[in-house]
Give the backbone structure.
Amino acid sequence: MLTRGEHRASRAAGLAALMAIGLALAVPIAVLLTHGESTGVTSNQGDYLIRITRFTLMQAGLSTLLSLVFAVPLARALARRPDFAGRRWLIKLFAVPLGLPPLVAALGLIEVWGRNGVANKGLGLMGAETPFSIYGLSGILLAHVFFNLPLAVRLILPALERLPPEYWKTAANLGMSGLSLFRRVEWPAMRRSAASAAGLVFMLCATSFTLVLVLGGGPAATTLEVAIYQALRFDFDPGRAVLLSLIQISMTLIVMLVLKFLGTPAEEGETKGGGTNRPDVQGGLHLLPDAVLIGLGGLFVGAPMAAVVVSGLSADLSRLLTDALFWRAAGTSLSIGISAAALSVLLAACLVRARYSAGHRPRSVPLGLLAGLSGAAGSLTLLVPPVVLGAGWFLLLGGGAGQLLAPLMVIVLINALMALPFVMRVLEPAHQNTLERNGRLAVSLGVVGRHRLSQIDIPAMLPAFATGFVFAVALSLGDLGAIALFGSDRIVTLPWLLYQKLGSYRTADAAGLALLLGAITMALMIVAEKLGTRNGSVDR
Amino acid sequence: MRISRFIPAALAAVVPFIAGPASSADRALTVFTYESFIAEWGPGPKIEAAFEAECGCDLTWVGVADGVALLNRLKLEGDNAEAGVVLGLDTNLVAEAKATGLFEAHGLDTKAVTVPGGFSDDTFIPYDYGHFAVVYDTETVANPPASLKDLVDGEPEQKIVIQDPRTSTPGLGLLLWVKSVYGDDAPEAWEKLASRVLTVTPGWSEAYGLFTSGEAPMVLSYTTSPAYHMVAEETDRYQAAEFSEGHYLQIEVAGLLANAPDKDLAREFLDFVMTPGFQNVIPTNNWMLPAAAITMELPEAFGKLVEPKKTFLYTPEEVAENRAAWIDEWLGAMSR
């Protein structure tokens, strides 16, 4: 419950936040549009653009298909075995890739799946003549499945676990099993969450940047985002970057509209580790297929992470930790992360409060617009990916050469926008709770306006702020998309340094750095989750 | 709100981090170059020590992925580039580099320099040269390609790592090599070769790293690369393939930036490039052939290298005129 003055202030703050976000998106797009006329499109270029667009969609489609084809049976196997030792840990492990910096994961994947990796040695022993290639399409698909298979499992599993135990009892009584159980009970229960998981995975893969940059392996395996980056950093051809950016925005817009049309966005449900009892599932020999599936799934997700730890520990960590450049990069990364997180939390808080103020059923068109836009502000950043945003600002700043503060602020801005949807998801329920609990009392006691913010609302929401903040820091720490355009010897972040070490093939250094970066982001994610569960507001 | 005050404060805290260490000497020179030149095992550290002993100044290297990336970076930074000398472009790029207006004639006597073809220029000084070649691992490649045509038509399962011509001078070199041999049929050749390419890297060091770690059995490098393995690792395992059509020549050059903060010091460095103090470091650290006299014996391994019977080299003007179109052609063929 808010007073009239508070309503006004909330809406003003929301409007200000919306305008700030709008400006941050509109300026680069306007720059891109006005830059557009600089080069004509030759027929070679036209072919290239068509092929890149086609490849972007094709690899996203294949990645989605592969992720789902493995996620559905894996989720089913996990639902069938609700109480084996380590199940909770396995499901926790499946949450890790979501927060893992893509570069760190790429390094782990190369360790495991590279020409000299464990996987290829195994394949060789089994008589495979041509080794699996971590570069090109196969590498991109592998990496996308590594990131999205666990995500899809975590999205699908709750749908099965939510089914009332009576279903399984009845199924057992009817002697239903195997295919008929899958067709009549399991698949109908999973279908919705599997479809929305597929939508999310497709979107994530269609806008994937870092993994394609590292594992792509040339013009034949390049996505639009990587091509934008190359047009600016390799060719310095703004005209082509603009063209590619416009294609990218139209593509994501169409995909988003299709997804919107198909159904609700995926929400990760509660998977506390223990599922429902399954009287329809037999033990003994029948355990084998499930156990194999679960074992392989765990190995597939766990091995690259283990590889990062093992090769990281064998690197010369003490030398790395005494390297001045490492500390400079860590300082820059933390400063950017903290600034971006602060900005993100501030924007999210304004939007959340404005949305609350506008109400569930807004009474007027402007209020409806405010509520709708505040809610959509988060997904806007999915529509215009970081590299496109960066490209616009990059051109506006003349490549950011010789400047420090301006490129840094752009990186902070982009990272803040990237974290916004996540931070809003954390703040919204906490804000709702706070106002429901204390709103009426505060108004009746006359504690309103600024006093109420500083004495009641903000203190009550501190845990949620902290969760969102820490999560946003972690996200920014692992990001390569924004820094890739502006990075130079003057602006060095941890992911940028890692990318450079990978590039110059200082493998030992890269392995050590990947371990450190992975450990820092994981620690932050754990802190965020701990804060969140204590607060009861996060369902990650 | 406290947070809004915090953001500028946090940003301000970043700046001292980024400004980098201040130099101790009175005179300071920054040289832009490519990454492998300044690696611990590259020529950079030795040349830095030798020059600093002579000039009583502080020399700082700034490295980017590879030679073409150097030019991109200069175009991007324009007058803001805070360097005195650019070292690591090659003759293919000098016409384009001059057209940026960022370079200034060096005004030095370059008669100490001798390179094949006798390249000589008022703005750029050659500091080393070499011939591009496909280097292969004798343990996995039994029948190395004997010509560029062999390479193009060969077994697709046998992979090669190449460099991106948009960032790397070896990558550009291969593009020009294919163009020299195939002419208008180059796109078809690239389409065929694409199936043998494991990956395209932004720079030479990344590609060579992948090769030596066993990810691919062949790499685009130089005829001189095997000397490194013979001298430093005492192994004949890695060899360069001699191509019957001939090899493309690369002459690497250094130039003076018009905006150099200390032009006299920059010229001093360019003069130093032509002396044995610099040239002696080149053969066994950059693994290229020296462009001026050296005062040491070349290791015996250099006598065992492939010596191309024919060399290709486009003039800088030809490359400047066609580079964009040829790269588009390459992108078109490689993305097919």
